[in-house]
């Protein structure tokens, strides 16, 4: 692998805090709160900041002809955000193996401090020429393991691994 860039300040701690963003007027839906599509925008731009700080930005893609693709995402909406709300996202790695990365993100109101939403994502490391999964290069895997180790100290998030379903009571199932 060509030189692995050093971690940017803050990337080696958990959780990684994104830059502050503002909920824009065009992101508000007819219910008067942040439209669900823009939660994805906020989570996606924040994970890009995290990956860039971890050395997995555009330079990595260009030098290694490899990248990582999101293959699954699960968002939980906890509390509404209004137009103009200042926000930040905290990101961390829950798990990593030879070809996959499992991330966790929390979106917070940057002034009031409340949790607005969570996002759990699974990424695959991909060889860009073959467009197939490929192992992480050893230096990157070591870095991801270290980031995951730092995040482990925070404990597993309560909402991680949730499934979408309607839980039925025994009396409803037999009816």
From TrEMBL:
<dbReference type="GO" id="GO:0016787">
    <property type="term" value="F:hydrolase activity"/>
</dbReference>
<dbReference type="Pfam" id="PF13279">
    <property type="entry name" value="4HBT_2"/>
</dbReference>
<dbReference type="InterPro" id="IPR050563">
    <property type="entry name" value="4-hydroxybenzoyl-CoA_TE"/>
</dbReference>
<keyword id="KW-0378">Hydrolase</keyword>
<protein>
    <submittedName>
        <fullName>Acyl-CoA thioester hydrolase</fullName>
        <ecNumber>3.1.2.-</ecNumber>
    </submittedName>
</protein>
<dbReference type="InterPro" id="IPR029069">
    <property type="entry name" value="HotDog_dom_sf"/>
</dbReference>
